[in-house]
Amino acid sequence: MRKSVLEAIRQGMWDFEPEKVQEGLFDSTAAMPGTDEKLSVMAERVREGLPLWHGNDRTEYDDED
Predict the structure, then answer these.
(1) pLDDT at position 1, please?
(2) Of 8, 21, 27, 37, which cross-links 13 as Cys (Cβ 3.0–4.6 Å)?
(3) d(CA 51, CA 59)
(4) Residue 48, Cβ neighbours under 10 Å: how many?
(5) Inside any domain, residue 21
(6) DSSP 8-class letter at 24
(7) What pTM, to 2 d.p., does this model score?
(8) Residues 36, 55 contacting (CB under 8 angstroms)
(9) Residue 30: Cβ within 10 Å count
(10) Number of domains the chain contains
């Protein structure tokens, strides 16, 4: 499992930089920005040590699903 920023903070690693992860290795989300669903996806990414953002995440109301 990748080390998450939360785990690094617990261990006092204040200079932690997450490893790079290719976008093809984790899913994007069509959840609307600011919704509980989007926040849940982002929280799970943090727990898993994944990047917070994915290039194909929905960013606007008008984005196609």
Answers:
(1) 52
(2) 8
(3) 16
(4) 13
(5) no
(6) G
(7) 0.77
(8) no
(9) 14
(10) 1
Q: Is residue 41 part of a domain?
A: yes
| Percentages (nearest 5) of helix, strand, coil residues in the chain | 35, 0, 65
Q: Amino acid identity of 6?
A: L
Start-to-end C-alpha separation, the chain? 30
Residues whose CB is less than 8 angstroms from the CB of residue 30 and which lie 6 or more positions away in sequence, other chains included: 58, 63, 65
Is the residue at 40 inside a domain? yes
Give me the domain span that covers residue 36: 1-14+30-65
Give the 3-state secondary structure of residue 60: coil
Query: Cα(8)–Cα(6) distance, rounded to whole angstroms?
Result: 5
